[in-house]
Write a structure and sequence with these properties.
The protein is α+β, with helices and mostly antiparallel strands and 94 residues long. The protein is built from three helices and three strands. The radius of gyration is 13 Å and the shape is globular.
Length: 94
């Protein structure tokens, strides 16, 4: 079983969760329309990169390219956001 902390973990959205852009925030909704999470710009970018094809390292590299941050910060931010979203049920089980 692949875990969040393994090198080959590729997060993918739970099909029962949808994202909506609402002006200055990005809201993730469950299938019943209940709000699961509100994302800031950085978390939104991380979430949108989680399509099941990219590893955490690839997501962090994309974040670095967009925001020009040190590799350690990009990795820490990606892991923190993915852990929070995973705990909220945003990602499908691998």
């Amino acid at each position: 079983m692949t875990t969040i902390h393994s090198d080959d973990y590729r997060p993918k959205p739970n099909p029962q969760v949808t994202g909506r852009d609402l002006r200055d925030e990005y809201v993730l909704l469950g299938s019943a329309g209940d709000r699961i999470h509100v994302l800031n710009d950085t978390a939104r970018e991380i979430y949108l990169l989680c399509d099941g094809t990219r590893t955490l390292a690839q997501i962090a590299a994309a974040l670095r390219a967009t925001y020009d941050v040190p590799v350690e910060k990009a990795r820490a931010d990606v892991l923190r956001v993915i852990e929070e979203l995973d705990a909220a049920g945003v990602f499908s089980a691998s």
